[in-house]
Amino acid sequence: MTLLRFLPCCAIVLLVLSKLTLAQYEHLGYPPGYGDQEQEQYTAPQLTPDTPRIQLRLAGDKRKHNEGRVEVFYNGEWGTVCDDDFTIHAAQVVCRELGYLEAVSWSPSSKYGKGEGPIWFDNLHCTGKEKTLSLCPSNGIGVSDCKHSEDVGVVCSDKRIPGFKFVNTLPNHVENLDIQVEDARIRPILSSYRKRIPVTEGYVEVKDGGKWKQICNTEWTQFNSRVICGMFGFPGERKYNARVYKMFARRRKPTYWDFAVNCTGNEAHLSNCKLGRAAELKTNGTCAEGLPVVVSCVPGRAFAPASMTGFRKAFKQEQPLVRLRGGAIVGEGRVEVLKNGEWGTICDDNWNLLSATVVCRELGFGTAKEALSGGRLGQGMGPVHMNEVECSGFEKSVTECFFNKESVGCSHEEDAAVRCNIPAMGFQERLRLSGGHNPYEGRVEVMVERNGSLVWGTVCSEGWGTMEAMVVCRQLGLGFASNAFQETWYWPGAVSADPVAMSGVRCSGTEMSLSQCLHHGAHLSCAKGGGRNAAGCSVSAPDLVLNPQVVEQTTYMEDRPMFMLQCAYEENCLSSTSGQVPANSYRRLLRFSSQIHNNGQSDFRPKASRNSWVWHDCHRHYHSMEVFTLYDLFTLNGTKVAEGHKASFCLEDSECDEGIEKRYECANFGEQGITVGCWDTYRHDIDCQWIDITELKPGDYIFQVVINPNYEVPESDYTNNILKCRCRYDGHRVWMYSCHNGGSLSTETEQAFPGLLNNQVTHR
List the disulfide bonds (predicted). Predict the structure, then answer.
């Protein structure tokens, strides 16, 4: 019975793996669930002679290649569609006519900008089953009382209709149409490139009508190559050995596509390019005065083939001016720029695919898949450095683009973000979650080579934690870790994968795959004798950030008698020498307030369930996390001289941003947590909100606070969990200044901060 129960799960895993193997460059995103249903094959619409012939395209200020203002080509002129009576059914007709599987949404009121020319359709009443938009009932073509402020836009699904065949019904105007093919790929031809991961060089092929075809290179330009490389995750292109490919083309006859390609070079995807003229093919099907198009792409540093690693290490990497933060997988995140030694964000006003692509290429990725706005990948901290960014698409850095230096009215709720195209590395094929109730959970199983064969096995449980689970979820494209378990008897996994195949795994959390983490290699060592590690993944995660200004403004000293610190003593909130002094002696406490914001995309909840919280009778409250924050004082050379810690006396929403309701309150054994957009304040006058500095000598020190130090709760960014300040103590008074969060300053500025590199938080 158990075996039958898990057979469908295994079959689906094999199906997914086989699809990834056969189609290296198919879009890899968050899986909607186990296996898709078998999809229909495209059949060209049979239109009656009296049906008006139109062509469609998506135009305007787009954030994705599969969205935009609906434009119609009719009677020799491009025009738009009015949003009056427009529905998702009409959007469905538009998307399917363009070769997309379905419509996702539609937008009224010229969201993608005002179009030009006539408004061809108004008051459309589609059922969603029409073969072309011109078959939907309307006022009549060209009959409209609308203005271009009412131009409608649509968002189509990423997936194309299998077997979709581009049908040109307006041959005299083919150069005005967007490219509409089922798929595209780079197929490696030379044996030296067939074994490389990622594939960087080969024929450019398009899938049209279910068949892969080459493109004639007679009208091919460098701009076209730039777009192809970008959509497959590469920032640039380079020259290749044309002589070798000429020899290959003579030996094996190519099958050519019917059209040329006309790109400007700053398109994010081939589908944004225009069709060129019909290809001039000889009677024998060969390309007139040409050969199949070949591209050779330059991978970013993180994706360079293994043979180039020595070259990479020979040069010291310069301080980048741009970075991504808060993203779940490689190539996505909130855009942050460095200015005057301080990291800040970009306001999303005018943020579009063109500017996002400049960011992606600058960071060693390809073109942008999506330009995100509204703080979709979490809110940043610090200043908003750029607003109303406008790029041509050919800048080396987004900092070279035109922008408005004034960011009046911009807040971190408007932080811009990107999702970039990255090379297909095949990471997903060597790892799986098995036995879970959904694709986002299960026992971790890895594929390794044993005696010349590839076999599945488990990972040793020793040392398994949140950082390792983070890498697993990233490798599978499933987002952030939500759980990391060392014992998972309720997720049995595949019986054939029970033997331990990987041990000694220690990850920093930034690796792209589990194999990049430290591990024992072929020399396995697992004292527990088995691995039942599991991971649960989530597309969102919290992100806790401490307010540095509050720490500076609330710091002071207090001398408090020992007999008033009994509860704090029981919870180990005093220095070790406090147990050897009389009850009427005094302890000198460095007090301060902590205001902890959740800037992430999901609520911060304690790992332990409510029934396992620990009751502390002295303070009369529950601890949902025994160590929530660490407080330390270091000398300027990094030696720890005083310390404190804070359990989660109560994780609750003290205050929230405008429009956000509080969810968590500790009264009456309530649920604990911090809602997105809210903050939890630990006031300076409560127990344990201090460092015991009774034995501290006068001098200059580094004050450090670390939130969630044991990584018990997964977060989207751990670098900003650290806060550091300069602290001066003269024996009578204390000053706290230059407080800042980890990762908020440039490398040079942080290196100039005494002791900063010597007292980094260590993992476990």
Answer: 82-146, 95-156, 126-136, 263-273, 391-401, 507-517
Dihedral of alpha carbons 486, 487, 491, 495, sign: positive
DSSP string, 510-559: --SSGGGSB--TTS---TTS----EEEEES----EEE-HHHHHHH-EEEE
Alpha-carbon distance values, 655 to 366, 376, 666, 684, 718 (Å): 41, 22, 14, 17, 23
109-113, 569-573, 670-674, 754-758: the lowest-pLDDT one = 754-758
SS (H, E, C) 331-366: CEEEEEEEECCEEEEEECCCCCHHHHHHHHHHCCCC
Burial call 504-528: b when 16+ CB within 10 Å, e when fewer: bbebebebbbbbebebeeeebebee
152, 108 Cβ separation under 8 angstroms: yes
Per-residue pLDDT averaged across 5-32, rounded? 39
Helices and strands counted in the chain (H then E):
11, 40
**Burial class of 248 by CB neighbour count within 10 A (0 to 12, 13 to 18, 19+):** middle
Distance CA 241, CA 237 (A): 13
Instruction: Give the β-pairing of 534-538 and 480-485.
Output: antiparallel
Q: What is the pLDDT of residues 732-748, one digit of tens each?
A: 999 999 999 988 888 77
The C-alpha atoms of residue 333 and residue 28 are separated, in whole angstroms, by: 17
How much is the pTM? Answer: 0.78
343 has pLDDT over 50: yes
What residues are paired with 502 via a beta bridge?
A: 459
Q: Is 747 helix (H, G, I), strand (E, B) or coil?
A: helix
Lowest mean pLDDT among 198-202, 322-326, 492-496: 492-496
Tokens representing residue 677 in the block: 């957009």
Length of the chain: 764
Residue 1 has a pLDDT of: 42
| Terminal Cα-to-Cα distance of the chain (whole angstroms) | 41
**94, β-bridge pairs:** none
- Burial per residue of 132-167, b for 16 or more beta-carbon CB atoms within 10 angstroms, e otherwise: bbbbbebbebeebebebebbbbbbbeeebbebbbbe
**What is the per-residue pLDDT for 753?**
55
Indicate the helix (H) or strand (E) that contains 312: helix 309-313
Say if residues 349 and 390 touch (Cβ distance below 8 Å). no
Contacts of residue 266, defined as CB under 8 A and 6 or more positions apart, other chains included, come to: 354, 357, 392, 393, 394
Residue 356 reports pLDDT greater than 90: yes
In one-letter notation, the amino acid at residue 689 is Q
Q: What pairs with residue 447 in β-bridges?
A: 456
Check whether 757 has a pLDDT greater than 60: no
* Contact of 165 with 209, CB cutoff 8 Å: yes
Alpha helices for 536-670 (secondary structure H): 548-554, 566-570
Task: Give the percent of the chain with pLDDT over 70.
Answer: 84
Q: Which two tokens stand for residue 247?
A: 């020899």
Who's near 619: CB < 8 A, 6+ residues apart?
Answer: 567, 571, 649, 687
3-state SS, residue 24: coil
